[in-house]
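S1.2 Input.
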Amino acid sequence: MISIHTQRLTLLPLSLPQLHLYLEGVPSLAQSLGLVAEPLQVEPVFWAMLPESLANYSIPKVAEHPDHYEWYTHWAYILNSEKRIVGGTGISGLPDENGELQTGYFVDERYYNRGIATEATTGLCNWAFQHPDTKAVIANTLTDGFASQRVLQKCGFELQGENEEGELVWRLAKP
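S1.3 Output.
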C-alpha cells in the first residue's frame, strides 16, 4: 500500500472505495480506517467544492487509472499522534508534457499554525519528484491567502505571477 510518512503525518492516497466513503463524509472514511470518526472543520466554501471535485475528477480518474490512482486521488493527512484526519491534498495526475503537475491542500481549522500543511506539502512534493518525468509542482493561491502563500514559500515555491482567475501561481522546480 502506498503512503508517505513525514515526521508527524501519514499521507494516504485514497482508493476508489475510500473516495466513495469520503464523499459520504470524513467520519465514514475515518471509521473505515480505524481513526477518530469526526468531521473536519474547514471553510464552508471548501466543503461546497469538495463533493464536486471528488465526483467529477477524482472518482472518474481513479477508476480510469487504477494502476496509477495515487496521481489522481485525494490524499488524507493523518496526524499519527491523534489517529485522526486533519486535512488533505491532491495532485492533478501524472506530469504533463512540460513535466509539471498541480497540487492543492487544506487543513482542519483546529490545526492551523502547526506546520501541518508545510510538512505534508514537502512530503508530497518529494514523493512526486521521485517520478523521472516530474520537473515542477505548481500551486495556486488566492491573492489574500497569506497562510497558503507562506506554506508554499516555506516549501521553496517561487511566485510566477497571476492566472486568468486572478489567483497567484507558485512553482517548485525539481531539485
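S1.4 Remarks. The chain is about 35% helix and 25% strand.
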